[in-house]
């Protein structure tokens, strides 16, 4: 791992090691590799893991329905919508009502249906109402890393409170995503002087560049930190993204067939390792079908 312990810098270094080529080093700088190789490879890996992982982050998007308004814009990076519900009390998590979708040609309408980046309700809402969309992220966001060089700046890379962190305007490596809620579900890692902490981002205010995390940090608030926004970090995940990136870049560089085959073999090993790790994290219930669900109300044990 890179001495900075950064996910992005570590991935860049390993890609360069897998494709040891002087011309390659001269042509592609770190910023280019992150933007054009590592980002799409990261999404490729994340999509494969999401199908099998037992620890996908559940996100909640609050949506205010307006009487007679059909369509509403969804947050970016929606991977799967799990439920559209109304809570009895947002503080206790009990569901009062669930909107269960039907086929587009159902006589009563589909209830809700996805259309590109929108969710549409048919028949149209008859009253103003606050609901919640529960979804998981597809990981299609702009990761970035900021190395704090010292000094004091209240407007950049600062832990404002123990639960809110303000991103820097210009990161050291990678890109800052300018889409609302784009970082929801991703990992925010702060690099303290003695230790580092990771938290899941629950929401992101793009206007103020402020991320709110699901659980407070124990690091001191009111302090500037080096930080990184990236997927949850592990050696097996870094290796899977690295090899996916090396395969992609090796195709550009027209590496030999034998070299390409070795990269694919290593990638298969890495993706198998991280998939096995994540798919078995929730080992208490194991792999099974749940029968007592809202979609099977007549089921009896």
Layout of helices and strands:
Blueprint: H1 7-18, H2 22-27, H3 30-50, E1 59-65, E2 71-73, E3 78-89, E4 94-98, E5 111-115, E6 118-122, E7 129-137, E8 144-146, E9 158-161, E10 164-166, E11 173-174, E12 187-191, E13 196-205, E14 210-213, E15 223-224, E16 226-230, H4 235-253, H5 257-279
Antiparallel strand pairs: 1-7, 2-6, 3-4, 3-7, 5-6, 8-11, 8-16, 9-10, 9-15, 10-14, 12-13, 12-16, 13-14
Note down, in words, how this protein is organized.
Helix 1 crosses helix 3, helix 3 crosses helix 4 and helix 4 packs antiparallel against helix 5. This protein is 27% helix and 28% strand. The protein starts with 6 loop residues before the first helix and ends in a 22-residue tail after the last helix. The chain has 5 helices and 16 strands. The chain is of the alpha+beta class and 301 residues long. It folds into 2 domains: 143 residues, no CATH class; 79 residues, no CATH class. The protein has a 9-stranded antiparallel β-sheet with strand order 11-8-16-12-13-14-10-9-15. A 4-stranded antiparallel β-sheet has the order 1-7-3-4, with no helix packed on it.
Spatial strand order of the main sheet:
11-8-16-12-13-14-10-9-15
In terms of DSSP E residues, the strand content is 25-35%
Instruction: Summarize the biggest pleated sheet.
Output: 9 strands, antiparallel
Outline, from the CA principal axes?
globular
Structural class: alpha+beta
Low-confidence stretches: none
User: What does the average pLDDT come to?
Assistant: 88
Q: How many domain regions?
A: 2
* Global Rg: 22 Å
Helix content: 25-40%
- Number of H- or I-type helical stretches: 5
Kindly report how far apart the N and C termini lie: 51 Å
Order of helices and strands: HHHEEEEEEEEEEEEEEEEHH
Number of strands: 16
């Amino acid at each position: 791992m890179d001495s900075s312990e950064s996910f992005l810098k570590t991935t860049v270094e390993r890609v360069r090691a897998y494709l040891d080529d002087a011309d390659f080093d001269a042509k592609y700088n770190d910023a280019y590799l992150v933007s054009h190789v590592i980002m799409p490879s990261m999404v490729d890996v994340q999509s494969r893991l999401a199908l099998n992982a037992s620890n996908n982050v559940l996100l909640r998007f609050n949506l205010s329905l307006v009487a007679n308004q059909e369509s509403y814009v969804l947050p970016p990076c929606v991977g799967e919508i799990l439920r559209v519900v109304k809570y009895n009390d947002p503080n206790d998590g009990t569901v009062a009502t669930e909107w269960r979708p039907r086929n587009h040609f159902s006589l009563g309408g589909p209830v809700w249906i996805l259309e590109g980046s929108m969710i549409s309700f048919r028949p149209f809402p008859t009253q103003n109402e606050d609901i919640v969309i529960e979804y998981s992220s597809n990981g299609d966001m702009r990761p970035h890393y900021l190395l704090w060089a010292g000094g004091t700046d209240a407007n950049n890379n600062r832990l404002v409170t123990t639960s809110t962190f303000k991103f820097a305007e210009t990161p050291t490596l990678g890109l800052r995503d300018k889409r609302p809620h784009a970082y929801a579900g991703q990992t925010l890692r702060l690099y303290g002087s003695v230790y580092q902490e990771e938290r899941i981002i629950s929401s992101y205010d793009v206007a103020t560049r402020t991320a709110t995390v699901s659980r407070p940090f124990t690091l001191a608030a009111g302090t500037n930190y080096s930080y990184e926004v990236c997927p949850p970090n592990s050696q097996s995940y870094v290796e899977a993204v690295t090899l996916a990136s090396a395969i992609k870049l090796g195709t550009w560089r027209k590496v030999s067939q034998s070299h390409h085959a070795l990269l694919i073999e290593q990638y298969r090993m890495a993706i198998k390792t991280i998939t096995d790790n994540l798919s078995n994290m929730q080992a208490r219930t194991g792999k099974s079908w749940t029968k007592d669900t809202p979609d099977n109300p007549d089921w009896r044990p």
